[in-house]
């Protein structure tokens, strides 16, 4: 079963949502048969390339949140993340910038077979360590850590080889109904907006699995075929008074 999750790197709900999805797959009885694929949902184009600003300044500029409201909102997210095993999880005391190049880096890493490694690593670097993930040198350092060839990564990013793919992934999510991130699609049939809790995600995984994997009980001639709506008794089953 395939699960796709679209995220923005600097979105705190995306980092938390990715973590919750991982926990749901870990708890899922058929988790070893689930393929999780991360995809790009860049929404940071309002930031100038090559510069960063503080989360405080960016949020005030974009949403008009004053310090008191911003402090309350971001600390709540940090608190939830800590309760769920993500600590530290730096939201308020961080920097934001244009993430398009970082998404191209993630597309390159995915093409090299490191989709999960790269996405988890970028979230960990940004939220766990408050490291910049916006510039070429920042990303080349991450390439070294992820086992990617540094000079090849430099060429790929300089030439913009994955620029169109990043845009295509964004448009694909929007066509599926996404208006923000994170956005999860389970088995190509269930769209889940926002950072739903682990229990809710686990429930969707189970429902999607059950609908495509009916249970067969083999117990001789009296066996019943069981599906998501119940069990059918074989036609030749004798009726007992």
Structural account:
Helix 1 packs across helix 9 (198-212), helix 4 runs antiparallel to helix 5 and helix 4 (100-111) packs parallel to helix 6. Residues 220-241 have low confidence and may be disordered. The two termini are 44 Å apart. The protein has one domain (2-210): Glutaredoxin, CATH 3.40.30. The protein contains 9 helices and 8 strands. It is α+β, with helices and mostly antiparallel strands and 241 residues long. Helices cover 49% and strands 13% of the residues. The chain has helices at residues 12-27, 55-63, 67-83, 100-111, 115-129, 136-146, 150-159, 163-175, 198-212, and strands at residues 2-7, 35-40, 52-54, 95-97, 183-186, 190-193, 225-227, 230-232. Strands 2-1-5-6 form a 4-stranded mixed beta sheet, with helices on both faces. The protein has a two-stranded antiparallel sheet with strand order 3-4. A two-stranded antiparallel ribbon has the order 7-8. Strand 1, helix 1 (12-27) and strand 2 (35-40) form a beta-alpha-beta unit.
